[in-house]
Design brief:
The structure is a homodimer. The relative contact order of chain A is 0.15. Chain A starts with 10 loop residues before the first helix and ends with a helix. Chain A is elongated, with a radius of gyration of 20 Å. Chain A has a single domain, classed as Formiminotetrahydrofolate cyclodeaminase monomer, up-and-down helical bundle (Four Helix Bundle (Hemerythrin (Met), subunit A), Up-down Bundle), CATH 1.20.120. The longest helix of chain A has 39 residues. The first copy, chain A, is built from six helices and no strands. Chains A and B meet through helix 1, helix 2, helix 3 and helix 5 of A and helix 1, helix 2, helix 3 and helix 5 of B. Chains A, B: Its EC number is 2.1.2.5, 4.3.1.4. Chains A, B: Pfam families: FTCD_C.
Chain lengths: 211, 211
């Protein structure tokens, strides 16, 4: 399947296909979808804050948060489609001939490219989830109090989607031979895990103080 | 809208509606959907384990896990539909007349009933997420190694969906006058939060040891 097809499935079909033994959608795609739901919760609370007399003073900030949440949502949707396409891409490389030394070398090189791409995609999903977390943190103290719990929902879901997407990084990274790339991704992974836990806890604490 | 309608939406529409200022789907429904995705990941790994010579010995346990994951998925789908219906129910009670003392008393009584129902529903969603977590824990040491990371995805997502669903409990519970009910729900909330964190960490550790 092409990744874009998933957006025309019913919600019921998404669950059925995810539960089946079909290879896609797998954990990376599901993580991107959860990140997208988290981005939607940030947008919803921003939309419920804008245009209200009581929240007039924070309108410019909330407009900014809404625009960034929409960009993160778009990035996560693209990441999901891409995650599914990576699978077909990988399968195609696996089927390349390896009869001669030249064919083997060409296949190995394409395999390294496919692995980097299959690492960059979930890393991008995790980075977009991190962005959603930061938006939830910015919205928590100023968003509409009547819907503030949904900012907490966004924070919990974005943090877990970030960690879940990183499993796809952990699987592919050890097979990549470029040491500089490995080191760079490992550092980014550690940074995102550490920061995300702090931002999630701080955001939930603000939300709870406003329930 | 009736809760069941959501299952015929496209995945794209789910995100658009969640992001809009429409009151449903809100955080409770979104949490149920994430719990359902986690249940689907458990089912997928179970399906990829069954029928494989290498995993023949664990087949009876995995069959049991698959059946329970399907039951949890079904429970979460019902919980989502119910969460949306609770909202219409609540709005209907708010519109009841309060012209006389009798009308006021009748309205207050119906309101208490609606609040209990709007607390039981997300609590049930959280309990189903907890069940998914326990199934992920059971599958982590015996599921197909080639797909084991998706058990970790299930664990992260189920734990966060549990915590996210509990916000709906936290909002409604303080308005319920029945002290026994309040105490019972608070105890269950504390138990689920504590146990879920432990089970999630233990499951992720097993998954990481098998990557």
């Amino acid at each position: 399947m092409a990744g874009k097809e998933l957006w025309q499935w019913t919600t019921e079909k998404l669950l059925t296909e995810a539960a089946s033994s079909a290879p896609t959608p797998g954990g990376g795609s599901v993580s991107a979808f959860v990140g997208a739901l988290a981005a939607s919760m940030v947008s919803m609370v921003a939309n419920l804050t804008l245009g209200k007399e009581k929240y007039k003073e924070v309108e410019p900030q909330v407009q900014g948060i809404l625009a960034e949440a929409e960009a993160a949502l778009s990035g996560l949707k693209n990441g999901l489609s891409q995650d599914i396409d990576e699978f077909s891409n990988f399968m195609a490389v696996l089927k390349l001939p390896k009869n001669s030394e030249e064919e083997k070398a060409a296949r190995a090189q394409k395999m390294q490219g496919a692995l980097v791409s299959a690492t960059d995609t979930p890393l991008g999903i995790a980075e977009n989830c991190f962005q959603v977390l930061k938006l939830a943190q910015a919205l928590a103290p100023i968003g509409n109090k009547g819907a503030i719990s949904d900012v907490g929902v966004a924070a919990y879901l974005a943090e877990s989607a970030l960690k879940a997407a990183m499993f796809s990084v952990d699987i592919n990274l050890p097979q990549i031979k470029d040491g500089d790339y490995q080191a760079k991704v490992k550092a980014e992974r550690a940074r995102l895990f550490g920061e995300a836990a702090k931002i999630c806890a701080a955001t939930v604490a603000v939300v709870e103080s406003r329930l």
